[in-house]
Amino acid sequence: MTGADGSPDRIRVVMVVRLFHPWVGGTERQALALAKSLIAAGVDVRIVSGWWFRGTPRRETIDGVPVFRNLTLWEFFGIRGLRTLGGYLYVVSLAWHLWWTRRTYDVVHIHGMNYHSAVAVRVAQWCGTPAITKLANSGAASDVDKMRLDRQLRGARFFLSTALRSDRFIALNQAVIDDLAAVGVPRERIIALPNGVVLDGVTPKPDYRIEGRAHVVFVGRLHEQKELEVLIEAVAMLEQRTRGRVRVTLVGEGPHRSTLESLVDRLGLTEIVALPGETDDVRSVLEQADMFVLPSRAEGLSNALLEAMAHGLPAVASDIPGNSDLITDGRNGLLFAPGDPGALADRLELLVGDESKRGDLGRQARESVESHYALAEITARYISLYEDLVKRGHDE
Questions:
Q1: What class has domain 214-372?
Q2: Geometric angle at alpha carbon 221, from 201 and 372, rounded to 5°
Q3: Which of 12, 60, 65, 272 could form a cystine bridge with 35, CB 3.0-4.6 A?
């Protein structure tokens, strides 16, 4: 791709993200971080999403990234019952927008595989533009299963065959690769490429001493997929064994808040388990933590876990795909059997009582991130992928 004078043009990428700010989850945070990094590297990037929430502008710029929201109905008019109809309206408005603006982008980069990705892939095919689809989850929250079982929109299973025609798929872990292979995606169209984390300005933990209670932090959506009940139950066990050793902060918001608050109250943990809600300053939260916990039953590759490791925090995570891609048990973090509060309590007790272990795991965590997950390196790999696809043209 060259300009009139023979010099290379900037690659133009439209990122399709079904949900975006003010909705903030791992997919949305990673899309924004990657978009910012790509723009800094000279790529022309804009994000296209749905206009889901009343009070949000249709067009805005977030941290230097242009964002456009297409029409929907669900929650926009305050009527949750319009969710299905809103999904169908989004399909139509997204298709129209991508077709109308087809001369303004060279690559379609889709975050998450669902009904929206099928629409984006089909329009890209009509336009002769390469499409890349990044899958968000595997295991119990598999993107493939969500479509096949109509979990997010009735009839989504009929979109699956089209979604699977994307030119390339980004897999965050081996389980995602297996999911794609199981539905017939050729291995040469699957690229193993992890999420990246910003390291600039992130200072690793200076020491691993604990004064008073050890501060255990979780950052993420308060959603059943995160299995935060397991963490709360583990803290109750640990409090019975060694009173006064830990306090916990669950940073985030989501549909499971009331369930978690009820459990905290029932177990008598209101003085040591806090649910402060969302924050725009995750960095400060991690700087004040002594250790990080991620008890999820399914992940792609957790941004929150990456960020915690970048801060040099010793981390305890469930032994599931994604988490086990980041953590080698006993070397740069600790893993525990998913859904087992007793096993998690044992791991936390080990860390709370051993400063040397906390330091060894934390320093190795930071080193792992620097070696394999720096956002600058991940960005360079995406640029190389974009250039390769634009050069060879749309796969037939």
A1: alpha beta
A2: 40
A3: 65
